[in-house]
């Protein structure tokens, strides 16, 4: 759709096809045949009707999903038991919009502890059936229960002896009757005014797929840490998998000075390493203090001579430290609660092994 500004306000222009301008449906033409001219200004009434149409769709789909609660019955339990007992993978099948829903179902199952993948039924008839083994469970989606591509491979699935779970909108359909388990995901009406485009039916199927996935997740005792392992690049993965030792500065990159070092040398070490602080260690490498930008401001307020003052006199003694194996997210919580911008990492003997500041956590995506 193209819009343009006319003298009377915002004009709605019909899409161009082959250089021709066509008429278009208006908000009040839902299900009707009346069309407005190719271009006319929007009115408050048009906007009100658009909102009404959107609200009607949401209400229709919400009702379809709500009706599913009464269908969480013995068939649902049996489907879960088949999938929990599966020694292979859950193979999800579906054509068209059901295929898109099936792809999402497979992805949700796989990321929540139930290994699964999607197979296109059309491709299955041309070799992809080899992806299905006797150890698998098949989950097939079809609103009509008569999808030709699914019925074509049904005899092969039966020959393999794999359990078949069907989600359809017609309990008496061929697919429903052939399945070991049938889950009814029928809807009273589609949200599409023509009753043709899969809308409420795909939403219902998607919701039932989520119900299955979450039921399996809870039964398996799947944890947030398990979820993070399958999402290492996501925010949750970084928060639950990334350790302080994975992102801290190590070796020569860690600013450090010995006890007794003059403040001037400590400041030069801070400038060289660029972390806004330096650790103060004893001859054995044990952390005895830290000197930060904040300490520098307090030093300047005291008018101390940086060429004659040892860093020991102005450092923060016994600073907050952490172990490298601590989660980076936990280190962030410590820094936030103690209102510090840098953290030293030590080993079991309190020897300095690394350091981070808030910028390191930001770059790692922990913040």
Can you offer a commentary on this structure?
This protein is of the alpha/beta class. The chain has 3 domains: 2-64, no CATH class; 68-222, Rossmann fold, CATH 3.40.50; 244-363, CBS-domain, CATH 3.10.580.10. It is built from 14 helices and 17 strands. The strands form 5 sheets. The protein has a 5-stranded parallel sheet, with helices on both faces. Strands 11-12-13-14 form a 4-stranded mixed sheet. A 3-stranded antiparallel sheet has the order 1-2-5, with no helix packed on it. β16 and β17 (352-357) form a beta hairpin. α1 packs across α7. The longest helix is centred in the first third of the chain and has 25 residues, at 44-68.
In short:
By secondary structure, the protein is an alpha/beta fold. The chain contains 14 helices and 17 strands. It folds into 3 domains: 63 residues, no CATH class; 155 residues, 3-Layer(aba) Sandwich (Rossmann fold); 120 residues, CBS-domain (Roll).
């Amino acid at each position: 759709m193209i819009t343009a500004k006319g003298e009377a306000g915002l004009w709605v222009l019909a899409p161009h096809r082959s250089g021709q301008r066509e008429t278009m449906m208006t908000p009040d033409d839902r299900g009707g045949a009346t069309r407005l001219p190719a271009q006319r200004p929007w009115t408050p009434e048009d906007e009100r009707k658009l909102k009404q149409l959107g609200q009607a769709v949401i209400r229709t789909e919400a009702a379809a999903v709500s009706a599913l609660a009464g269908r969480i019955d013995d068939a649902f339990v049996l489907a879960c038991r088949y999938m929990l007992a599966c020694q292979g993978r859950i193979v999800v099948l579906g054509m068209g919009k059901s295929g898109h829903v099936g792809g999402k179902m497979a992805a949700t199952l796989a990321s929540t502890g139930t290994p699964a993948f999607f197979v296109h039924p059309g491709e299955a008839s041309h070799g992809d059936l080899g992806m299905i083994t006797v150890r698998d469970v098949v989950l097939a989606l079809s609103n009509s229960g008569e999808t030709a591509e699914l019925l074509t491979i049904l005899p092969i699935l039966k020959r393999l002896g794999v359990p078949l779970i069907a989600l359809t909108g017609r309990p008496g359909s061929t697919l429903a009757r052939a399945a070991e388990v049938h889950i009814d995901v029928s809807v009273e009406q589609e949200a599409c005014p023509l009753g043709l485009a899969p809308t409420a039916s795909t939403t219902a199927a998607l919701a039932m797929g989520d119900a299955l996935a979450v039921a399996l997740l809870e039964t398996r005792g799947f944890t947030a840490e398990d979820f993070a392992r399958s999402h290492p690049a996501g925010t949750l993965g970084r928060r639950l998998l990334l350790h302080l030792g994975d992102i801290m500065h190590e070796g020569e990159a860690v600013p450090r000075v010995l006890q007794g070092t003059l403040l001037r040398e400590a400041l030069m070490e801070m400038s060289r390493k660029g972390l806004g602080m330096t650790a103060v260690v004893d001859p054995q490498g044990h952390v005895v203090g830290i000197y930060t930008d904040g300490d520098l401001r307090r030093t300047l307020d005291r008018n101390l001579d940086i060429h004659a003052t040892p860093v020991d006199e102005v450092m923060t003694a016994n600073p907050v430290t952490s172990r490298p194996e601590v989660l980076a997210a936990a280190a962030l919580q410590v820094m936030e609660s103690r209102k510090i911008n840098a953290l030293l990492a030590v080993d079991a003997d309190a020897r300095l092994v690394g350091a981070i500041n808030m910028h390191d956590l930001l770059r790692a995506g922990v913040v």
